[in-house]
Design goal:
This protein is mainly alpha-helical. The protein contains 10 helices and 3 strands. A 3-stranded antiparallel β-sheet has the order 1-2-3. The longest helix has 24 residues. The protein is globular, with a radius of gyration of 17 Å. It starts with a strand and ends in an 8-residue tail after the last helix.
């Protein structure tokens, strides 16, 4: 399912959310400009979260818990992340206010990336992407606007349909999917296998962080808004 828009009108312009989207694309542009693969690997390793390096010297590498949230692994990665941030972040910023929103976003990213690093302490694979912080935004949206409608593109075999789905169903489905994948990832690691690719645990942790922090950063909406 691909979200297209939500039905929550904003009372103020969400300039912080747009700034975050702009920063993510700016740093992705920097990545694209690094033509040398070795230099790019070094850049990603320096600014991304490498769990083994982080836990070897947490004070020196704590900054990566934030910087990693502005790096992406490809066009699909950044476009999908920014789509979710645009659709859900605007309304969350409107509910929280500009200053509280940026503080919340950074905290959600730190908690998501930190959780992923905690459960994979020996990993030398850099963790990058805004997914954990954005998952926090989704968790906050779930808390603030559970009954809002999310216009969603749904592929069914060879057909594509667009339906309005209640936010609690759309985001609940998303969270359950991340939780199942996270559980599989942890089980796989416990049995001696390693999983690369998407950091599902960071997604689930970010979402839970958003649910927990949301009440402290803004008031819950009414039934429909």
């Amino acid at each position: 399912m691909i979200p297209l828009r939500n039905n929550i009108p904003n009372k103020s312009f969400p300039f912080i959310n747009w700034a975050l989207i702009g920063l993510n694309f700016y740093f992705f542009y920097i990545e694209l400009m690094i033509r040398n693969p070795m230099r790019l690997d070094s850049f990603i390793s320096h600014w991304g979260v490498v769990p083994k390096i982080l836990w070897a010297n947490p004070q020196q590498h704590a900054y990566t818990l934030v910087s990693a949230a502005f790096l992406h692994g490809g066009w699909l990665h950044i476009i999908s992340n920014m789509l979710f941030l645009y659709i859900f972040g605007n309304s969350v910023e409107d509910r929280m206010g500009h200053v509280r929103y940026i503080i919340f976003y950074i905290l959600a990213g730190i908690l998501a990336n930190g959780t992923q690093a905690y459960f994979t302490p020996a990993s030398t694979i850099p963790l990058i992407g805004a997914s954990g912080a954005i998952a926090g935004v989704l968790g906050a949206y779930f808390f603030y606007y559970p009954y809002s409608e999310v216009e969603t593109l749904i592929p069914i075999f060879f057909f594509i349909t667009i339906r309005s789905i209640p936010a609690f169903i759309f985001l609940g489905y998303w969270f359950i999917l991340q939780t199942l994948n996270s559980t599989f990832s942890i089980t796989s690691m416990a049995s001696g296998h390693t999983m690369g690719g998407v950091a599902f645990l960071a997604h689930a942790a970010g979402f839970v962080s958003g649910l927990i922090l949301g009440p402290a950063f803004g008031k819950k909406s009414g039934k429909f808004r």
